[in-house]
User: Fold UDP-arabinopyranose mutase from Capsella rubella.
Amino acid sequence: MTGYNLEAIEAAPLKDDVDIVIPTIRSLDFLEQWRPFLQHYHLIIVQDGDPSIKIRVPDGYDYELYNRNDINKILGPRASCISYKDGGCRCFGFMVSKKKYIYTIDDDCFVAKDPSGKEINVIAQHIKNLETPSTPHYFNTLYDPFRDGTDFVRGYPFSLREGVQTAISHGLWLNIPDYDAPTQLVKPRERNARYVDAVMTIPKGVLYPMCGMNLAFNRELIGPAMYFGLMGEGQPISRYDDMWAGWAAKVVCDHLGFGVKTGLPYLWHSKASNPFVNLKKEHKGLHWQEDMVPFFQNLRLSKESDTAAKCYMEISKMTKENLTKVDPYFENLADAMVTWLEAWEELNPPVKNEACDDKPVKKDNGKDVKAK
Ligand SMILES: O=c1ccn([C@@H]2O[C@H](COP(=O)(O)OP(=O)(O)O[C@H]3O[C@@H](CO)[C@H](O)[C@H]3O)[C@@H](O)[C@H]2O)c(=O)[nH]1
Ligand SMILES: [Mn+2]
Assistant:
């Protein structure tokens, strides 16, 4: 497919347009190996667990680091919507970022190699995925037609070849696959060595289990719908943070006409989590997913919902109406979704037109800021 200068996209890493968000309860030593690919980017590190622990960021990285005390200070009572002791705390980083794109990665992930032995530049591939259209309305059997060396196949309607803007790029994992605890327990030695050289659009109306380990998205298009839920300490469920975000964000993308791609790039996941501990954290989710998935599959948004934030507000109401019968937890989750939206709006005030009004309009972290 021509018309998109893929080489130019690869050469320009868009370093001023991407923030890298890392949730961590461990160490950041994994960043040493990522230097050639990540050091040019700004990091937003969300330190989970005990805030008195000092974590070291490898020299040379440009970063902001937030622990629980910082989250409480910045969000005040609204900090209650950010999960504690769950990787879902990463969404705080999405909220404080001001960039167009987010790339989020776990702290037990390393650089993978393609079958030729070349190290994979994850951000370059995610940017390609995001900066080229998706094709959610009709499946191209040669996968992403916007990659070099391929195109739309015979029988692909010309009226659909323009595609739609891509909002989410979901990358995959070599070595330890993203299995749930029961699958990990029955297949403790399973490793993924299968590198599939493919990127594909997930069709409109089809949901998927989104993993937060190697994920990029366009924050301007979909940011408010990328809430990783209320999980972890004090909650009956953990480790469904990315699933919740993925189901909701896909429904919002389908409604707003954005696309979601999955496939390349791969990274190397060297799993640090324990399947027995995970089973304890996940077991309610394993039951509830049988209700959560049909809930999202049947959800229809109104045409008045024409932004990600409005869609997400509607989803919070529907969550309360439809899932509270599954468990009272969903009432708290629905309230947390509203709190998340309020906090998002406070930190990301709507941009006003300077020509109409140049008065200071909003407070941003306590400071008056002019609308840009
Ligand atoms: O309490 C916690 C636990 C973890 N983190 C950070 O979150 C990521 C992922 O954690 P981990 O590597 O333990 O989990 P996996 O099972 O390997 O990964 C998958 O589980 C998903 C559900 O949360 C996650 O998105 C998947 O990638 C690491 O960076 C931990 O340090 C945390 O902050 N708080
Ligand atoms: Mn892991």
